[in-house]
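Page 47, continued from p. 46.
Same chain as before, 269 aa.
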Amino acid sequence: MKKSISILGCGWLGLPLAKAMVKDGFTVKGSTTTTDKCETLLMLNIQPYVLSIDEEIDGNLDHFLQSEILFINVPFRKQKPFLNSYKTLVKAIEKSPIKHVVFISSTAVYADVDGEVTEEENFKVNPAKKDLLLFEDLFKNNKNFNTTIIRFAGLIGGTRNPGNFFKEDKVVQNALTPINLIHLEDCIGIVKTIIHQKKWNTTYNAAATSHPTKANYYTLATKQMGKKPATFIEELTSFKIISNQKLIDELNYTFIYPDLIEALKVFKN
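Result:
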């Protein structure tokens, strides 16, 4: 029987992931918030669904969830109605054939600790992002299906060229802080590895291995595009370094772009 996956959110990450899963022999259902994108999905052998999750869920959710695996990559909002919509989604998953969920979260949940942070349960929470943990808990605490949480660092690759992140007239504070980023191709590779190895009911940090300073990295990225870089205030007030060791150890994953400076070579003007 052909394996199946539903991808909630065919955007910057969801669409290339959907294409990769089709290539791997999966039946793929993909959601979009606009009908304009449906034809594109069909041409890529992705079954399109117009779905939106806001104050309520709009679209044929029950049919969309007729798969074995669900990939969730929808930007969250703090508002209570949005959380309630996710509770509705969880109830729908419970009634569906979905057995496994990959939930995309963010390393923004970690507060600056002036050192390395891991996935351990007793980590210091970033107060501005504590609501994101409520969304994580909705899924990982549910016993009706298996959930793996991936906390991605800052996202680069595809349409996200780091040379465009800071304009010339921008003044950037705390510029000696080490950065935490991950390339799109590694995002896809990690998701695929988790699915193929069936690594469920756990949480992984996903960030490149190197952590150059903000000043060094973004100056190089901007100059590579032939633009004048922003002004970086070379100070170090607070920082965190996202550890990817658990992911490397448990998945035996080899990063495509472990070195962020070297990865700049793939970006074009």
